């Protein structure tokens, strides 16, 4: 596949993603890509092992150059979070620290509330091998734990950034949970559905399917309800008319 087109910075404010002592440039690049996919573009790096900028990060970002080009580098976590009012730290391990722990979904909702109040928010992600240390965690007021398989809960850091960024995006998304892919076809009107049902009912009468008088009213109502639930487009209704006509024609020819 060719190189993806370059993305643009996020238009709406969001949390700062802070990668602490990242070891692999590829993970930084993939994290940047995940961020921009979900509408985030502010990245801070704390003491990246291989220095900055990093060519491998650029390649792995697949067009999310705007995130990497504007990334800020800090020597310590304290410096990276100095201007933030709220800091959330990701962790997969039990720790000695007494901290409030939330899921990624709950954290996303809280972060939207804080940012809506004009506050600056950041999310800490630890290095690939060890995760965040206690000295890093104490800079956070909230710990974020992702409920995964307790026997295998370790995530690649880029995966963790994607998961948290996705929860951030969906927390503010108004897309309905389910919809029909209409491909520009309009929904069938109730009159069109009525015409279709009349056509179907006539064909079923002619075929003898509705021959039992006692059962006929319930069968007719169930079939009508089925067509209503189908949420047909006008094109689908016309196609169904064609199917009924074709089957009726071949029935008469037998």
Automatic annotation (TrEMBL):
Its main location: cytoplasm. Belongs to the class IV-like SAM-binding methyltransferase superfamily. RNA methyltransferase TrmH family. Catalyzes the formation of 2'O-methylated cytidine (Cm32) or 2'O-methylated uridine (Um32) at position 32 in tRNA. One of its GO terms (biological process) is tRNA nucleoside ribose methylation. Residues 16-166 form the tRNA/rRNA methyltransferase SpoU type domain. The keyword tRNA processing applies. InterPro entries: Alpha/beta_knot_MTases, RNA_MeTrfase_TrmJ/LasT, SpoU_MeTrfase, tRNA_m1G_MTases_N. The gene is trmJ. This is tRNA (cytidine/uridine-2'-O-)-methyltransferase TrmJ. Keywords: Cytoplasm, Methyltransferase, S-adenosyl-L-methionine, Transferase, tRNA processing. The lineage of its organism: Bacteria, Pseudomonadati, Pseudomonadota, Alphaproteobacteria, Hyphomicrobiales. It is an enzyme of class 2 (transferase). GO terms for molecular function: RNA binding; tRNA (cytidine(32)-2'-O)-methyltransferase activity; tRNA (cytidine(32)/uridine(32)-2'-O)-methyltransferase activity. The keyword Zinc-finger does not apply. Its EC number is 2.1.1.200. It is found in: Cytoplasm. It catalyses: cytidine(32) in tRNA + S-adenosyl-L-methionine = 2'-O-methylcytidine(32) in tRNA + S-adenosyl-L-homocysteine + H(+); uridine(32) in tRNA + S-adenosyl-L-methionine = 2'-O-methyluridine(32) in tRNA + S-adenosyl-L-homocysteine + H(+). It comes from Enhydrobacter aerosaccus. One of its GO terms (cellular component) is cytosol. Homodimer.
């Amino acid at each position: 596949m060719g190189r993806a087109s370059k993305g643009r910075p996020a238009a709406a404010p969001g949390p700062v993603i802070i990668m602490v002592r990242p070891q692999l440039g590829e993970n930084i690049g993939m994290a940047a890509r995940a961020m921009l996919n979900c509408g985030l573009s502010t990245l801070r790096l704390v003491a990246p092992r291989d220095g900055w900028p990093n060519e491998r990060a650029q390649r792995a970002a697949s067009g999310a150059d705007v995130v990497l080009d504007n990334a800020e580098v800090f020597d310590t976590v304290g410096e990276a979070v100095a201007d933030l009012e709220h800091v959330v730290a990701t962790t997969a391990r039990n720790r000695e620290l007494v901290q409030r722990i939330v899921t990624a979904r709950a954290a996303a909702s809280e972060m939207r509330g804080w940012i809506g109040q004009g506050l600056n928010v950041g999310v800490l992600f630890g290095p690939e091998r060890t995760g965040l240390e206690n000295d890093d965690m104490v800079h956070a007021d909230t710990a974020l734990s992702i409920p995964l398989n307790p026997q295998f809960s370790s995530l690649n850091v880029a995966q963790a950034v994607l998961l948290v960024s996705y929860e951030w995006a969906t927390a503010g998304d108004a897309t309905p949970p389910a919809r029909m892919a209409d491909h520009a076809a309009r929904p069938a009107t109730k009159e069109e559905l009525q015409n279709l049902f009349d056509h179907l009912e006539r064909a079923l009468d002619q075929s003898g399917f509705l021959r039992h008088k006692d059962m006929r009213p319930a069968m007719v109502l169930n079939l009508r309800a089925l067509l209503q639930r189908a949420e047909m487009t006008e094109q689908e209704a016309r196609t169904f008319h064609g199917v009924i006509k074709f089957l009726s024609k071949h029935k008469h020819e037998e």
